[in-house]
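hi! just following up on the protien thing from before. the input was this:
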Amino acid sequence: MEKSVRVIILLFISAFVSFSIVLAESNNAIRSATIKDTEGNEVVLYNESHALVIGASDYRSGWAKLSGVNKDVKNATSILKKHGFNVVVTKDPSYEGLNKAFTDFINRYGHKQENRLLFYYAGHGYTTTLAYGDDMGYIVPVDAPNPHIDREGFLEKALDMQQIEVYAKRIQSKHAIFLFDSCFSGSIFTLSRSVPEIITYKTAEPVRQFITAGSAKEKVPDESVFNRQFIAALNGEGDVNNDGYVTGTELGEFLQTKVVNYTKGAQHPQYGKIRNQNLDKGDFVFIVGSRDGLLSGMKPASKNKTDVATNNSIQSSAKKHRVTGMGVEPNNSDMSKPQRIAMAYRAAELDARRKLLESVQGVKIGSNSTDENFIAKNDQIDEKVNGFLKGAYIVDKRVTPDGLYEVDMEIELTP
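and the predicted 3d structure came back as:
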């Protein structure tokens, strides 16, 4: 009788877990990723999109706790759901839990060829030199000892990049990308930058891509610049060539440029493709908008209310579009502290205006544009600034704990 009760309980638990997974997938609203060709026909890029987001923060064996990871996991989950991903979240995994998270996720979602899989890890990373002289990178579960205290225990518990490569090759889906918000040696991938130019070709060929927040011996701050720029990239800023897509390669280039800049050279993200001739031809693709910009069909609202009035009433469809610009103090010893702060805020405001133009009107401006040529020396930019951004206004200014100066700007939009 007791054995029968146990069997019934186990069956109930199994059914409940299965139901919970199905319910979670339903709530995540899995949908295919589609685009329209020049004739208006729908073309499916991916049948399904799935993401595994792992956050390790509550370390208990000699590593510093990372309180900011929980926020990073939340932000990454939110933007991925916005892009149509079913998101599975694993928090504070042990060594066994970390391996199980990868294995279960791949077994459940990685066997369908037309899927795309994304892996995002936030937590400690570490690189050590092995006995035979090679460097090995690791991601660190919460129960792994600090290698400076217990090296053998660390090697037993940390998950090395060779195992990540095994997981990458085990996947049958054509596209998989691994993002690590941690720093370690990226020896399993090549830093080759060559990519195909046509989106359909990029999605047709298989690929395994990797992006890390920094190289070996660099440290990632708990207030993650990498995470913030990852969100910005998927919101459209990573669309380097303004074609409505962010590829895995574009994402790597964007993160490398931005993170190096905003950390003042303290972090140097690495990106590339697996060293395998059968898995390095394609490119992961995010759809971020049309060729005319993220907010295609939207235009700046007039500040004159009569211009948007209908039947003597103001249209209620006006929307506010907000961006955040970032700047750093110039490294100039001849400037006073107030002057450096003023320059940092000015750079942040310039960055915000650039982002407004890029997202609203599809005007691409290099991140290294100066205030002078941004306003005056480029006729197209000058026209856009004076015509479309007159209604833009600053809503907030602040300094982040890692020394970045941020300016929030808004502009009202109407259909």
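Confidence is low (pLDDT under 50) at residues 1-27, 192-197, 290-318, 362-387.
The chain has two domains: 30-287, 299-414.
cheers
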